[in-house]
Amino acid sequence: MRKHSGTTARPLAALAALAAAQFTVMLATSIVNVALPQIRSGVGLSDSGTTWVVNAYGLAFGALLLAGGRAADLLGARRVLLAGLGLFGAASLAAGLATSSTALIAARAVQGLGAAAIAPAALALVMDLFPPGPGRGRALGVWGAVSGAGGAAGVLLGGVLTQAWGWPWIFHAVAIGAFLVLGAVAVITPSAHVTERGRFDLLGTATVSLALTALVWALTTARRSGWTDSQVLGAFALATVLLAVFVLVERRHPNPLLPPRLFTTGQVTAGNVLMALFGSVWIALFFFLPLYQQQVLGSSPLVTGLGQLPLAGAIMLGSTLAQRISHRFGATATVTAALLTEAGGLLWLSRISAQGSYLTGVLGPSVLIGLGLGIAFVRLTALSVEGVPRADAGLAGGLVNTTRQVGGAIGLAVLTTLAGSVTARAATHQPELDALTAGYRTAFGISAAVLAATALLTLVLARPRRRAADPAATPQNAASLTGTS
Fold first, then answer.
1. In what way does this protein cross or attach to the membrane (predicted)?
2. Domains recognised in the chain with CATH numbers
């Protein structure tokens, strides 16, 4: 028996510390994007190596989130959160000191490992602090605001630090932030809630982590070597076999990493399917947009970062309004409209040109994208943890972060492959900047199509229904959480 992690009697202070932890994780996802050209020349990265500076973090993060969530449930969310913050800070420091591409990519992978402990543990503590009801809805609004704003703020901070002191400082700043948050989390203390201690599923964790690694490696390598390359096909085959082994392991393990009961709770399955599709566009947006601003429009890192402020502000506004809008119009209508709004912004962005400007081609779409992204993220997160008992809070937090992050890694790999192919073909008969822009337009256009399809799928998967009650949740609380009152 053990005590389940909870929080102090000062919920706002605890929420602020937990939100800061999530902000730091999201910051690290995008802070490198604006500095990729400088990092590439600084440590001698190849084209594929440049992508792996982003993917190494995203892959380790996504592949190990389930393990981090399960560890939070078995060992205590506060303990796992503190350990994750310490590891994350140390890896960030190592990344800033790296002098070779191998050391940098390895440090980014360890950063992802730390983040995989931070995100589900912090979300589990938020769920424990705020039971189902309006309070949890508002807390998830804050969660969504810092998550979305963290991605945009990373581009801004990356631009400022790169131009002022050089690219190593983007990692030093993240390390300083992680250690400061580590101190702030000291305000969180264990509650008296008790659950049973179970066995950790090491074999399940290993097989699913290796499967996801093989899958994203294959997608990333296909851009350079082609989809019919023997190594790429072998990696796809390996991923398929490992996922099959994972399913068999989960059926036989007494305490599986991903217990079937989780998918029969509330609308966890629907929320995670939609989150995976939504996430497939998220990371790619913060990858391609800064590249277009720098490589095509010729903006400096600082100007590129400042150009993300409207996007960040719109994300924060959308996240703040999400609960209120959902309460008035219903969760399904809110998510559908938000996804279509973001899709409209991306479709607008797909009309960029090499002769365009920030004001005419980027500003307007950024605001639309930010509003839709902020609202959709909050409501999809709420949907994905709806009805989950406290004993599985960490696992639910790990699962929703896994689907978003792995979806993002796969989406980035696919979109960079397609954009690169379009650019290569266009370069045979167009100037370089026009060819680059053609690739970026393709990425934004496909992203818009994915979100439009996700909006239609939302109407099918996320229809309002009665959920299995959480012992702590009343029908009134359930309606408040889902926005279907």
1. Multi-pass membrane protein
2. 2-200+255-482 (1.20.1250.20)
Burial of 71 (0-12, 13-18, 19+ CB in 10 A): buried
Coil, strand or helix at 194: strand
3-state secondary structure 314-359: HHHHHHHHHHHHHHHHCHHHHHHHHHHHHHHHHHHHCCCCCCCCHH
Q: Identify the three-state secondary structure at position 3.
A: strand
Phi first, then psi, for residue 6 (nearest 5°) are: -135, -145
d(CA 293, CA 194): 52
**Residue 47 Ramachandran class (φ > 0 left, ψ -120 to 50 alpha, else beta):** alpha
pLDDT score of 263 more than 70:
yes
Q: Count Cβ atoms within 10 A of the Cβ of residue 134 and give its class: 0-12 exposed, 13-18 middle, 19 or more buried.
A: middle
Q: Residue 246 and residue 326: Cα distance in Å, rounded?
A: 37
pLDDT range class, residue 474, cuts 50, 70, 90: very low
Angle at 281 between CA 276 and CA 282, to 5 degrees: 90
The residue-averaged pLDDT of 214-243 equals 84
For residues 112 and 61, the answer to whether their CB atoms sit within 8 Å is yes
User: What b/e readout covers 197-212, taking b as 16+ CB neighbours within 10 angstroms?
Assistant: eeebbebbbbbbbbbb
Please name the residue that has the structure tokens 């631009």.
159
Distance separating alpha carbons of residues 417 and 411, to the nearest angstrom:
10
- CB of 394 closer than 8 Å to CB of 417: no
Please name the amino acid found at residue 306: L
Give the number of other CB atoms < 10 A from CB of residue 242: 20
- Name residue 3's beta-bridge partners: 194
How wide is the angle at C-alpha 266 spanned by C-alphas 263 and 272, nearest 5°?
55
Residues 107 and 98: their CA atoms lie apart, in Å, by 8
In one-letter notation, the amino acid at residue 355 is: Q
pLDDT > 90: percent of the chain: 30
Structural tokens at position 274? 């939609």
